[in-house]
């Protein structure tokens, strides 16, 4: 039985992940922690509240000081079993921005939410991830301990042939670097770290013209995570498990 925490679960990919995890027994889920900034505005997520596996918690990725309180709330539920999977999904995206229109506040805001937030939340939850890893020494992947950073192909330097998107691209490239560092730093603890590009998905962020439905992306991500092992550690993958270039 594993416990999974998903940030940004009020809509889009985050909400889709929560729904999939609650309805799909392949993960043998004991607890699903779903975070959102404001429960009062997370109507669709709150409708799932009656599920005993689901624990809805408020978290703002800009308020890094609140992360240890969040970790304490998770700890009170998982006890000595720890947290098996952290999915850093919450994020923001600016419009297509050329160099002449870039604003420093947009760059800073993207880094606060897309890069610094996931890093600091991982730090706060690390004792619980280590606990899960120690508790399941003979297991691997989601049955042990995994950090998943939801990134984007727009964070790939190699694949950048269109320019623009300065705030979003740079923040996602940065979280990819953080993923690599986590994979190195936590290898001895048996904790895996991967970056995943969910595809261009029909969400509030992706827009109506995106070719992928949420469920397509979510199904691919979950199928990949079910089979994740040490060979994937520190890698960058798309939602179908294909290796992407940095």
Automatic annotation (TrEMBL):
GO terms for molecular function: carbonyl reductase (NADPH) activity. Keywords: NADP, Oxidoreductase. GO terms for cellular component: cytoplasm. Pfam families: adh_short. InterPro entries: Fungal_SecMetab_SDRs, NAD(P)-bd_dom_sf, SDR_fam. Belongs to the short-chain dehydrogenases/reductases (SDR) family. This is C-factor. It comes from Aphis gossypii (Cotton aphid).
């Amino acid at each position: 039985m594993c416990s999974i925490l998903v940030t940004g679960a009020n809509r889009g990919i985050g909400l889709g992940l929560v729904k999939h995890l609650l309805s799909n027994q392949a993960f043998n889920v004991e607890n699903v922690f779903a975070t959102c900034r404001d429960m009062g505005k997370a109507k669709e997520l709150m409708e799932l509240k009656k599920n005993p596996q689901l624990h809805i918690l408020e978290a703002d990725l800009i308020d890094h000081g609140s992360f240890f309180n969040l970790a304490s709330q998770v700890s009170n539920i998982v006890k000595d079993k720890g947290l098996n999977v952290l999915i850093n999904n919450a994020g923001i995206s600016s419009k297509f921005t050329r160099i002449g229109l870039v604003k420093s506040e947009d760059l800073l805001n993207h880094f606060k939410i897309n890069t610094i937030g996931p890093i600091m939340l991982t730090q706060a939850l690390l004792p619980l991830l280590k606990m899960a890893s120690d508790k399941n020494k003979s297991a691997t992947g989601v049955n042990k301990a995994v950090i998943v950073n939801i990134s984007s192909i727009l964070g790939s330097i190699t694949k950048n042939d269109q320019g623009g998107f300065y705030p979003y691209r740079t923040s996602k490239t940065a979280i990819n670097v953080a993923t690599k560092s986590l994979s190195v730093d936590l290898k001895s603890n048996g904790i895996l770290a991967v970056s995943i590009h969910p595809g261009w998905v029909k969400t509030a962020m992706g827009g109506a013209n995106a070719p992928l439905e949420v469920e397509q992306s979510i199904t691919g991500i979950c199928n990949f995570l079910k089979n994740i092992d040490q060979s994937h550690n520190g890698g960058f993958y798309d939602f179908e498990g294909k290796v992407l270039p940095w």
